[in-house]
Amino acid sequence: MKRFRYMKAVSVREAIRIFAAEPGAALMAGGTNLVDLMKYDVSTPTVVVDINGLPLHDITEQPDGGLRLGALVSNADVAYDPRITERYPLLSSAILAGASGQLRNMAPWEVTCCSAPVVPISTTCRCHVTNASLAADAPRRLD
To answer: Which residue among 11, 28, 98, 126 is least enclosed by CB atoms within 10 Å?
Structure first.
């Protein structure tokens, strides 16, 4: 494992500031997946920004009819949300097929969707750190 700095964000604003300012930053939501990837040098962040204490646990309706999933919403909450099962059944099915109940109850959905070294869903992942009054995109290229 390579050396890195650890920062526990105390606000969404602070998490966005650190993540946007540090090209080698990784967000830690849950943490077990990131730590495993770091042990084997699959992921080598220069800064780990811990967002576990932030208010990012909601699934909210968007004006365009889509849904915004907070970074800390558990896989189980995503998989069983009636809006997800109705509008995005493939997402729900994939989450249910991909992990045990214990992991689904603990693991945040963003780990499932944005962990390209494990499951390369796409070559670009847009990670959003948001709450009701603040939103920012910090795109990262996943090779």
So the answer is: 126
CA-nearest of 65, 49, 37 to 127 is 49
Q: What is the DSSP letter of 74?
A: B
DSSP string, 84-96: HHHH-HHHHHHHH
Token output for 102: 């214990």
Which is more confident, 117 or 23?
A: 23
Q: What domains, with CATH codes, occur in the chain?
A: 5-141 (3.30.465)
pLDDT of residue 70: 83
Q: How far apart are CA 76 and CA 37, in angstroms?
A: 23
Spatial separation of the C-alpha atoms in residues 68 and 120, rounded to whole Å: 21
Q: Shortest CA distance to 112 belongs to which of 60, 76, 58, 66?
A: 76
Task: pLDDT band for 101, please (50, 70, 90 cuts).
Answer: low
How far is Cα 107 from Cα 87, in angstroms, rounded to an integer? 22
3 CB-near residues (< 8 Å, 6+ apart): none
Q: How far apart are alpha carbons 127 and 39 in whole angstroms?
A: 23
